[in-house]
Amino acid sequence: MNEHRHTSPPPSGFTLIELLVVVVILSIVAGITSMAAAEGGEQHLDLAEVQLRDAMTRAEALARSSRSPHAVVFDVAGNRFAVVDEDGNAVVDPLTKRGYVVDFVRPGQPTLVRIAAVNFSDAGNAAIYDAQGVPLTNGAINLQAGNSACVLLWDGATGDLRRQ
């Protein structure tokens, strides 16, 4: 005859070693995350600088190709900038197919970044390229992100943007 043995199911749950391994892994991840957050300001400034360089290059190229002035206009209070045509209208961004506006408050942007100040001499808050794509004046853009800050200097003679 067949005897049925009743065996108890294996114990469920985690062993102390398994729990300790999970705690150690979570501690390591938390440490890496906190270090990344501390460096986040610099990373956000780097990304903002890349976006500014792209906008300046786009404005210069459009000025040359269309033979009409273009600019990068900064809205310090709104924490954004836009590439605009000679009428002040935002040009079309070739990637998004919408107005070329970089808004640091919008999701997906380096949200820690704040445009602290902008000065382009007589042009005020605009880096302007004439109809030949030549910059009209020198300028400076002050950015802040968390505890980090940087100044980007725009050379009116060459159109180069460099970090001070």
Structure explained in plain terms:
With 164 residues, the protein is an alpha+beta fold. It has one domain (16-163): minor pseudopilin epsh domain (minor pseudopilin epsh fold, 3-Layer(bab) Sandwich), CATH 3.55.40. It has one helix and eight strands, in the order αββββββββ. The chain has one helix at 16-66; strands spanning 70-75, 80-84, 101-103, 113-119, 126-129, 139-145, 148-154, 161-163. The strands form two sheets. It has a four-stranded antiparallel β-sheet, with helices on one face. It has a four-stranded antiparallel β-sheet with strand order 4-6-7-8. β6 and β7 (148-154) form a beta hairpin. It is elongated and about 95 Å long.
- Topology as a string of helices (H) and strands (E): HEEEEEEEE
CATH fold call: minor pseudopilin epsh fold
Main β-sheet description: 4 strands, antiparallel
Helix fraction, binned, reads: 25-40%
Shape-level CATH architecture:
3-Layer(bab) Sandwich
Mean pLDDT across the residues is: 85
**Cα-atom Rg, whole angstroms?**
26 Å
Structurally, how many domains make up the residues? 1
The backbone outline, from C-alpha atoms, is: elongated
